[in-house]
Write a structure and sequence with these properties.
mainly alpha; 2 strands; flat
């Protein structure tokens, strides 16, 4: 179903409360907030035609709403927002209303074995998807380091080693 106004406000309130608790610490931490990615590549409306999955037809819109809430809260609370939504767009399922994929194999998630049985897919990224998330976070950490030396050098060294070990070379 769709995310109601009260559910949106509940989500915003709990996210804000969590950040307030973290920011109450001493020293005050830098907080990076990642938003959601849309498994349906903004095409979830077709799910209304799949028996048992029509309740997910509003998924793409709900992801947009949640992503906007995360961005707004990050801005209001002085956190850093990392946009995963845009990075993942058109790298997931992206199936149109006729059941045709926009690409043969999604880049960042496991394709369902049967398009009419979505339980054979997975909502979690595959290695390439995790690599894309890692790169976005690493880029933000490098930027923070360059701007205000807010990131300990050991974080960057660790992130670089993870990048090298997972790809065989640094991005």
């Amino acid at each position: 179903g769709e995310c109601s106004e009260s559910e949106q406000e509940h989500y915003r309130t709990h996210l804000t409360t969590s950040i307030d608790r973290l920011q109450a610490g001493n020293p005050r931490p830098d907080i990076l907030l990642l938003n959601y990615y849309d498994l349906a590549d903004n095409q979830s409306g077709w799910l209304q035609l799949v028996p048992g999955y029509s309740i997910y037809a509003g998924l793409s819109q709900d992801v947009i709403v949640a992503t906007n809430i995360i961005r707004e809260v990050a801005e209001a609370k002085g956190c850093y927002h990392i946009d995963i939504y845009t990075e993942f767009m058109y790298h997931c399922y992206g199936i149109d209303i006729n059941g045709f994929s926009r690409h043969d194999e999604p880049d960042y998630v496991k394709r369902p074995l049967d398009l009419l049985d979505l339980t054979t897919g997975d909502i979690h990224p595959v290695t390439a998807g995790y690599r894309a998330i890692h790169l976005k976070v690493y880029e933000q950490l490098k930027l923070l380091k360059a701007i205000n030396d807010a990131v300990p050098e050991t974080w960057l060294e660790t992130a670089q080693q993870v990048a090298i070990s997972s790809t065989g070379s640094f991005y």
